[in-house]
Design goal:
Elements (H helix, E strand, L loop, with lengths): L20 H4 L4 E5 L19 H11 L4 E6 L4 H8 L6 E4 L4 E4 L11 E3 L5 H19 L19 E6 L16 E7 L2 E5 L5 H17 L4 E5 L2 E5 L5 H12 L3 E6 L4 H13 L5 E7 L8 E3 L2 H23 L1
Length: 326
């Protein structure tokens, strides 16, 4: 279970102020980053998320450097993450909050080095996922005009799909006018369902959130993941911290950095701190993107600041490698 930090954490720094030296001069570097809210600005429709172009260019440049590995760590399933991020083929991916892994870019040189993890659902997990679907579907179909609304007959396709619903009467005030937009989105992933409330009228968002949590009373093993305008109900217990530990074992870097913006990224920050404190790594860097409380060592503003920071790292890392390793 992800524990929310109680302290605000560090003050915001400009990208130029973040100390990157330990990463730039590392003998072996692994840089891991969340996707949504870090490399890509948050969107009302999650299917439209794309990397900031400057970040995409920096990621490609870092992935092409020797002794340097880039990894994306996300709540997205891997198939969706690979498609939306358009990350370099050499980038390693951790998906579904640590439940999935795709670490296979060295397979051409050493087939035994490839690591892939996309576990099957156990019978108990399948039962919980079906219960979540039934529960959320019941909420959709209690809404006026549910049978006619767009997306009411949408089917799950591929690794993940989204169903749009209308919550027009939920959150309406006494005068009958909704206080904000009223569409909600259910994102269907292999091991979870994510209810998006970004842009939803406040009363509608609160009602949908409470309804989503009701299913946990019947199935207490369902993991509740709350983030930026989302409530995710997951049947796997893996965290982004598990993903960070897997990356460290597989890549054996001497230094790691992690950039994240959401509550679930706190597990990754904690895991990286543990790896550094135990001397499994020579150094580690944790950077929070945004204003929420955090245990990270540094804080920067937004994806635009991330792009600037990554550009700096490209320059400093390239200069070090050219000087020391030719």
């Amino acid at each position: 279970m992800t524990s929310k930090p109680t302290a605000l954490g560090p003050a915001r720094s400009a990208p130029a102020e973040v100390v990157l030296r330990d990463l730039a001069i590392a003998d072996s570097l692994l840089l891991a980053l969340d996707f949504d809210g870090v490399l890509a600005p948050l969107q009302d429709d999650p299917s439209t998320s794309r990397m900031v172009p400057e970040s995409a260019a920096a990621i490609a440049a870092l992935a092409g450097l020797p002794r340097t590995r880039v990894a994306l760590v996300s709540g997205r399933d891997i198939a969706t993450l690979r498609r939306l991020s358009a990350a370099p083929d050499s980038a390693w991916l951790i998906g579904s909050h640590g439940a999935e892994a795709e670490l296979g870019s060295d397979a051409a040189r050493d087939p035994d080095s490839a690591v892939g993890r996309s576990p099957e659902l156990t019978p108990d997990e399948a039962e919980m996922l079906a219960a979540i679907d039934t529960h959320l579907d019941a909420f959709e179909h209690t809404l006026p005009g549910a049978d006619e609304r767009p997306g009411s007959s949408a089917a799950t396709t591929g690794a993940a799909a989204a169903t749009m619903g209308s919550a027009a009467t939920i959150g309406a005030n006494d005068s009958g006018n909704a206080d904000g937009p009223s569409d909600f989105l259910i994102e269907r992933k292999p091991y979870s369902r994510t209810v998006h409330t970004r842009g939803l009228a406040p009363e509608a968002a609160a009602a949908l959130h409470e309804h989503a949590l009701d299913v946990v009373e019947e199935f207490p093993d369902i993991r509740v993941i709350e983030g930026h305008d989302i409530t995710e109900l997951a049947v796997k217990q893996a965290t982004k911290g598990d993903g960070i530990r897997l990356l460290a074992r597989a890549g054996e870097p001497t230094a790691m950095g992690y950039l994240g913006d959401d509550v679930t990224d706190e597990d990754a920050f904690a895991a990286l701190d543990e790896l550094t404190d135990s001397r499994a790594l020579d150094s580690g860097l944790t950077v929070k993107v945004g204003s929420a409380p955090t245990r990270a060592s540094w804080r920067i503003a937004d994806p635009a600041a991330v792009a600037e920071l990554l550009g700096r790292l490209v320059v400093e890392r390239t200069e070090f490698l050219r000087t020391v390793h030719g």
